[in-house]
Amino acid sequence: MDPPRTRRARADAAAWYLSTILLGLILVASIRESYSSLAETEAAAAAATTRGNRLGGRACEEIYVVGEGETLNTISDKCGDPYIVEENPHIHDPDDVFPGLVIKITPFFPRINC
């Protein structure tokens, strides 16, 4: 029969071992989840985007990917959205627009006075 100290030491070692394994499993699961959600987000964005040309008869979709040679002014004129910078807080500098940048487009239609 083991003395109580030896049993306690084994129990402590087993608890540390199991907690380390559990922490590792949680980390692996969270990494896998973040990669799968990132892939789903990219797939959804790719399915709903347009790269500077018409898709489905509309000039712009809600999610827009900046094409080569486009500026915020040309996109604003084409899509009818003068508030692109205000609606996209990830754009810190309006002059720093590059191909592949994803922006949100909300067409602005002026009211017609009746």
TrEMBL record:
The keyword DNA-binding does not apply. The keyword Membrane applies. The chain crosses the membrane at residues 14-31. It holds the Pfam family LysM. Residues 64-106 form the LysM domain. InterPro entries: LysM, LysM_dom_sf. It comes from the Eukaryota. Keywords: Membrane, Transmembrane, Transmembrane helix. PANTHER family: EMBRYO SAC 1, OS04G0572800 PROTEIN. This is LysM domain-containing protein. It comes from Linum tenue. The lineage of its organism: Eukaryota, Viridiplantae, Streptophyta, Embryophyta, Tracheophyta.
